[in-house]
Amino acid sequence: MLKLRSGGMAVLAMSVGCGNFQFEAHSNGMARVIGARNEPRQHGDQNSGLQSPANQGPGAHASSDSMAATAGNQWRALFNLVNASDEPIPKEQLAAYASAAQQLRDTPDGAFHRYFATSMQLINSWRISSDAAPQEIAKLLGGNVATQGKLATKDSAVTVRAEAGHCYTLLTYFVKPSSTAKKTSEDNWHASPSHAIQRFETGLGLHQLGGANGFCASANVAATNKMTLSFPGSKNALAYVVIDHARTQFPLFLSTYLAPRVLDSCNAEEWASLWTDPIPGTVGYFGGKPVLGIEFDSLGNGQHWMTYSDLSAAVGRTVYSETNDHNPSKLHTDIEVSVPTCRTDPTHTTTSDTKSVAECWARLDRAFGPRYDAAERAQRGAQTQGAYNAAIDRSVAIKREHKSALDSQCKPIFDRVQARWEKSVHSLVDLYGEKPYVNSIPRYHELAAIGAAPFTIQYR
């Protein structure tokens, strides 16, 4: 088949937890420990703004190392418990670990252990009682329960009546955990109008928790998440809770590995909203320019890497420690303004023009694809040089005809999409040049802390 356009999403990211063991990430945002790493301890990072215990006064280094060793041993014991069975963790053991994590304060070890102490508390809430877990989780994360329940049918959905200025996070857990129990399909939020919500996904640290997804609302709107469940037998169910936070109260834990997620990569309004009213913690600054962290991973050699997007949706890579939460004294907005790759599937478009251009591409694909395929088959089956040359000529003519049809039928629509996108990006450049966004959540500081720790995350 003639490949007419390549589809894609400007921001479709995988967010995962991390720690002092190597992790393997999966396409659904989960991660699992696959082995320990034994390296000399390092503290602080010259770019992260973290204090090394060696600079905190006499005896601080030894004290910090001792506390880190205690927390590390507690973590290993808890991790073994979590993986050994689906039974709850003893509360006193978990409380001791959480206390040890808090005592480490702003050291790199502390960032990791605080993150995983919350992660352990989350899974324990589900394991103690799936009925009581929603309220416990809301308390743990400092939010309120927007809705909760259990889903047991193959095709299920969760609907939230969202309030403008609030963010909603969906957390789920199978009542009877199983390696074959899965939450599949689209698993994303939909609302009308689409740009009334800003979608995201985030990691929760432990693969048993899966990933979480959610959205922040810019208007009062009903949003629905459709998903497909599969599990053996008929006695299982997916327990869920949607936690409601005011934007100003969104927790650092959920923000740390949060990645914006755009349904229609060429919807200029949806993209602009991620910058004009950002999801808490997402906007940072790298190399003097504003960026969105959209994917987090590692080369497996102790360097923690982030994929970022600039104001025009162009992507780049950097290590955690080179990005910060506050705008630099000299802001750079010298970016190349260009429209990203647009969707070719009309069902994943959210504006009339992006839908029309996707339908145009699909229509021409159906019209010219079979003809091009036939010409290619003729080339492969040609018995003489003359037949081969004739098939080549047909292929060239079809390509020329197809390009002419694209230019006359699809390009005028795409030009409108591009003009709207470019106008929006120029407005963002002006906005950030005059008044750079100030991040209220130290997400990038937290990432730098984790990146400075002697831990490795391994992705496959």
Description:
The longest helix has 50 residues. This protein is 37% helix and 23% strand. It is globular, with a radius of gyration of 25 Å. It contains nine helices and 16 strands. The two termini are 30 Å apart. The strands form four sheets. Strands 3-10-5-8-7-11 form a six-stranded antiparallel sheet. The chain has 460 residues and is α+β, with helices and mostly antiparallel strands. Strand 14 and strand 15 form a beta hairpin. The chain folds into two domains: 334 residues, no CATH class; 108 residues, no CATH class.
Keywords:
single chain, 460 residues, alpha+beta, 5-stranded antiparallel sheet, globular, disordered N terminus
| Number of self-contained structural domains | 2
What is the global morphology? globular
Low-confidence stretches: 1-62, 455-460
Estimate the mean pLDDT confidence. 81
Number of DSSP strand runs: 16
> Hey, roughly how much beta strand do the residues contain?
15-25%
Main sheet, how many strands, which sense, barrel?
Answer: 6 strands, antiparallel
Order of helical and strand elements: EEHHHHEEEEEEEEHEHEEEEEHHH
Gap between N and C termini, in Å?
30 Å
Radius of gyration: 25 Å
The quaternary state of the protein chains shown equals single chain
Derived structural class: alpha+beta
List the helices and strands and how they pair.
Blueprint: E1 21-25, E2 31-36, H1 60-84, H2 91-103, H3 108-128, H4 133-141, E3 144-151, E4 155-162, E5 166-174, E6 182-190, E7 197-202, E8 212-217, E9 221-230, E10 238-246, H5 252-256, E11 259-261, H6 268-276, E12 283-286, E13 289-298, E14 304-309, E15 315-319, E16 323-324, H7 352-381, H8 385-434, H9 443-452
